[in-house]
Amino acid sequence: MNNKKKAAILISSLAIIAVLVIGGTLAYFTDTDNAQNVFTLGKVTGEITENTEAGTVDGHDVKPGTPTEDGISYDKIVPGDWLSKEPVVSLTGTSEDAYVRVKLEVEENVPQGQEAKLTDEQKAALISEECLNFGADWTLGADGYIYYNNKLSLAGPQATEPVFTLVKIPETWGNRTANVNFSIKITADLVQYDNFKPGTNAAGKIDSWGDITIEKAAQ
Questions:
Q1: Contact 179, 108 (CB under 8 A)
Q2: Is the sign of the CA dihedral 178, 80, 77, 181 positive or negative?
Q3: What confidence category does residue 69 fall into, taking pLDDT thresholds of 50, 70 and 90?
Q4: Which end of the chain is more exposed for a tag (fewer CB within 10 A), N or C?
């Protein structure tokens, strides 16, 4: 695939997890010499939202978090806890139809003068199938992105299924992780559905967008 810039936006979610809405028009091009030669590009706009609630899954208690301006906060968690978190990506405004993918990263908040407590292996586990129950409509690609396999449209469905609904804190975490403070960062990309062909795996599931360039939408 040529490295073509498609109509796309990038939206990010910080903390466990902040909600950030990004919108705007990617580009316009016009020719004012002749009204018949005036063109306006469409746009893709979206947002990340999430839900959290108490419950029970497979006989295991699920703890809810506390919504804040920065996302959902969880206090006094211990190894073995299951935390409720349901991030969803939705189209907004007058967005064109779009494909969606997300990327997950763990960021430890280390106080000044102290050393990090989480190892790279522990961070990787937190955003893997070991600790997250990815939805059936999402596929993990070899590039580390998680791809949604259905089109989003204002005509419906306008929102994805949750990327996951649970965060499981490993029971193997010991005293070294006491008082650790970390964030799971979610970055969501949207790309136009029309005239774009994503890559698929042997099962026909979307697992790649090729070498597409993602740009943040203009405000």
A1: no
A2: positive
A3: confident
A4: C
